[in-house]
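Per-residue structure
===
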Amino acid sequence: MKKTFFYWSPFLTHVGTVKSTINSAIALKRYSHYEPIVINVCGEWDEYLELFKLNNVRVIDIYKFSYKKFLPKFGFLKSRISYIIIFILSFFPLLKLLKKNKDCFFIAHLITSLPIFLFKSFKIKNKLVLRISGMPRLNFLRKNFWKFNKQKINVITCPSLQLLKKLKDTNIFDNEKLYFLPDAIFQIKDFIKQKKTNKSIDLPKDKKNILGIGRLTKQKNFKYLIKEFENFSKNNPDFNLFILGDGEEKIMLKNLINKKKLNNKVFLLGNIKNVFSYILNADLFVLSSLWEDPGFVLIEAGLGNLFVISSNCPNGPKEILNEGKNGLLFENDKKGALEKNFYEFTKLDNEKKLIMKKNLKKNIS
C-alpha cells in the first residue's frame, strides 16, 4: 500500500506558497511511489482542480461547499479573522481525517497552528512536517507555541539557508529535525511553454522599462519603490515603472502616484496571469520588499534573463543574488539606497550585466 502525503495549505490570496504546493504535489506523484493528496479547505483549490486532475493528484474537500469567496482577504486584521474562521470550521473535519488515515505524512504549509494543535492534543501518530513558507515572525507567542509542541513535529523545512541558520540559533527545535528545502517554484516545461506563448505587450519601445511584481501590501514596499523611482526619474526621463499585482494598498499607491504627478511614468497594471510576457520585454526588475523567503519573483525574473535589483531584506534575496554578484543589492528601506542602485545600473556595461544575469540563472536553476 502506498504511503500518503497530505498537503495542508489553506490560502486567501495568490501567495508564492500556492505554486510551491502545486509543484511539490505534482513532483511527488511523478517521481516517487508516494500518493499526494491536497486538502481543499475552503475552496481555495477549486480553480486548480483541472490541473491536479491532469497530473493525477487527488484533491479532497473538507466541506461540500466552498466559502473562500465570503472570507475577507485584504488587511492584517481582516485576514486574521478569516484564519480564525478556517481554524474553527476545519477543526473537527481535519481531526476526523487524521484519525481515519493512519501512518501517513502530513505537510502543513499555511495556518499551521491547527494541525500542530491537533497532533499534540489528540496524540495523532502520523508524521507531521512543518513546511515554513515565507519568513515567520518569531514573536513570543509563535516561539513558545512551537517549543511547546516541538515533540509532535517530525521535520521542519526552511526555504532559505538564512532561515535555517536563524532557527538553529534560536534553539526552538532540535537541530536534527531542521532541513533546508528550496521551494518547488517551477516546472521547467511550464516555463518553456509560457515563454513560447509569450504575447507581445505594449511596453514603450523608446523607453527603458522597470518592472515590479507582487501583492500591493506593506511587505512589498512599493511605496518606497515609487518614491525612489521619482527621484531617479527627474534626471532620467527615459525610464518607466510598471507594477504588476493587486492588494489592500492599491488606492494608497494610486494616490501617491497622483500626488507625485507620475501618471505618465508609473503604472499599476493589476494582476497579470502570465508575468513572463512582461519579464521577457522589460529592462530591469526591482524587488523592494521588507522581507521575503526566498523571493519567488526574483527567481522568475532571473529565469526570464532579466537584470535584478533587490533589497537585502531577510531571508532570501542575498542568497539568490549571492551577496550582489548576481545582481545589485541595496540596504532595505533606506532612503536613497535604491536610487543609488538605479544610477549604478545605468553605468554598468552590457558585458557586466550579461555576466551577472548568467550567474543569477545558474544559481537559481
Summary: The longest strand covers residues 35-40. The first helix runs from residue 16 to 31. The radius of gyration is 21 Å.
